[in-house]
Design brief:
Length: about 475
Amino acid sequence: MPRFEDADFAVDAAPAPGARSPRDARGSAAGSLPIPSDAGNTVEIPATRSSISDAAQYMHNLSFAPSSRDRRASRNSFGTSLPIPRSPRVSRLSSVVHADVSRDILASQVQDVNKEKTAAAKNMAFAFDIDGVLAHGNEAIEEAKEALAILNGDNELGIKIPYILLTNGGGKPEEERCAQLTEVLGCPISTDQFIQSHTPMQALAEYYDTVLVCGGEGQKIRKVAENYGFKNVVHPKDILAWDPTVSPWRSFSEEDRLEAKPRDFSKVKFDAILVFADSRDYATDMQLIMDLLLADDGKMLTRSVDPVANRIPVYFSQGDLVFPTDHKGPPRLTQGLFRISIEAQYKALTGVDLERVVYGKPERATYTYADEVLKAWMEQLHNEARLPENVYMVGDNPASDICGGNMHGWNTCLVRTGVFQGGDNDESNPANFGVFPHVLEAVKTALRKELGQDFKFKWNPKVNPVTHGDGASAVE
Ligand code: G3P
Ligand code: MG
């Protein structure tokens, strides 16, 4: 039986003293990669390539969102423009719930008596992040329910204090997500106070007709894009149903096939690629995105001679790297890391940096759009379509929520129920209003600052509007 000698593997039979062997380095952070098993029946073959990741050279130099500090000089982070709708689409019927008319009358009498406090209450608003602030996955963070109850009118003025939800999440229609949040949070959440990562991207429907949309559960993202007005929406499963061989490692069920809308994609010219949420099939989505980026002017099955001249644009709905979930361990990977993989793949294949656009917090376009939503929501709540002077952003991710809020001139509150687990404050993106254990503490502190240290976080249904001013009939 032939037997291999060490020389056959280009290995020195007796390594020189001090030579770096993976076996020697086992468990040592300073050495090469350790070999996991201690089997004696192995030989060590020197690597021909470095064991250090070479992804950096393939990555676009703007892969990571610069911190507030880095961005100080430039408010336009990516040097390109991001279209957003001129004004938000507001539901035709008012979404503000008036459940109890006599309570509302009593509250407005209390507000009449307390003019100054009421004016201050109408001059403030909140913008809440969702994952890691209000909820973990589909589980509400308990303190969030009380915070929202206070803002929904459970306070000494019986006044609603406007809040919007500004999330980098996405993947399903706004109506569906708001219905889900209403259930999770135990209070009504209207689409008129809700912005998910891709909501402002509806403006792109004016620029592109045929789009590949990726991400999210099942094929819900198709409905999202159709609601936004894109004329010809293609889901990756449509392409798989046309030709399953496009993705060698696909995941494609019978249910997928029933929902898919295959057609002859060899005749389709795509105008843009839109990643709206986390991919549920990295293999297929990466393959198709790369196919279209390398194609000649968005035509499937082609390859462009010049990778840049005829490349169609790619848009990502947000850039977070990790996010908190109901998983008990560290935060999970999310869309930003998927994008970085695409960038690295593109550069590895073409040698060229991929130009791309990233929406979502901390991007200015997202906050500008949030202002419009807030104005419209102010009109519904207070009949005044204006921006309040004191807006408080409550977030758990310094690099997105806090960075964007700081740049936008909002008061920023960082909570410890999500991504941020650091010390006194985040070093790169410090929250300017402070760090709080949870959202309820942030909300109470902001309300006390604007409305007085003695402001009561409870509505008293037996309040006497006339004597209320001295606090005699208010309860704690
Ligand atoms: O994928 C990240 C996203 O879920 C984060 O959502 O609410 O923390 O902005 P949010
Ligand atoms: Mg979050």
